[in-house]
Structures are given as C-alpha cells and as structure tokens.
Amino acid sequence: MKKSGILNRHLAGALAELGHGHGVLVCDAGMPIPEGPRVVDLAFRAGVPSFAEVLDGLVVEGATAAREIRAANPEATALLEARFPALELVPHEELKSLSAGARLVVRTGEARPYANVLLRCGVFF
User: Fold this and answer.
1) Active site includes 20?
2) Better-predicted residue by pLDDT, 60 or 70
C-alpha cells in the first residue's frame, strides 16, 4: 500500500499492517472520523499536508468519493479522477457509512470541502 519515502512513522507502520483490499479513508480536517479504525492524524495546520501530498504516498487499486465533490471542490475532483479513472461516486452520507469499515483513517490538513476518499489497498509490486 505504501510507496517509499513516507517519513511519518505512525503512517508507515499503519500502512505496513494493511492487507490487499483493506480500506483506508484519506480525509480532510472536517470529515467525521468513524469509531473503530486506527487513526493517523497528519494535520499540522490548514492545508498541511494537503490531500494531494498524502495521496502521492499510496498504492491504490480502487477509490470511492462523495458525489458532492464535483460541485463543491473541482480541484479535488480533477485530482481524484486523474489518479483513479474508475473513481466511484456515492452520496456523502453513504461515504461516511462506508468509512466505518475502513481499517485506517488518515486525516490531512486539507481545508477544502469534500476532500475525502475511501481507498482500497493495492500492492506495490
């Protein structure tokens, strides 16, 4: 799931424990965090680290985001659609429900709306 170069030891360790197909929620600073999954909070201040910077470090085979992202956050929409051509879009409330099944939540410092994505782990080889 992880590419080389991840310096945060908590994130590197959490990613190493994941298996193929496990769910990882990468979310903005405003997304409600479900109870249960391990949480790695990377947020330092608004915008740091960005949603894009966190996504750069991950190997992913599938992704689901909130349908509302298209109208509310065109930049994040373009980013996700470029990285994940088969991006699945669901209502935001459904994304929150699906997130409860994630094994890991990675909170970024992103402060733009709907910068949240549920990823399915891939393998780096």
Assistant:
1) yes
2) 70
Contact 124, 64 (CB under 8 A): no
pLDDT of amino acid 76: 95
Note whether 42 and 11 are within 8 A (CB): yes
CA 75 to chain centre: 15
Which one of 14-23, 26-35, 40-49, 87-96 scores highest in mean pLDDT?
Answer: 87-96
Per-residue H/E/C for the chain: CECCCCCCHHHHHHHHCCCCCCEEEEECCCCCCCCCCEEEECCCECCECCHHHHHHCECEEEEEEECCHHHHCHHHHHHHHHHCCCCEEECHHHHHHHHCCCCEEEECCCCCCCCCEEEEECCCC
Q: What's the pLDDT at 3?
A: 54
- The mean of the pLDDT values for the chain is 90
Catalytic pick from 10, 20, 22, 92?
Answer: 20
The dihedral built from the CA positions of residue 41, 42, 47 and 50, taken in this order, carries a sign that is negative
Average pLDDT over residues 74-91: 96
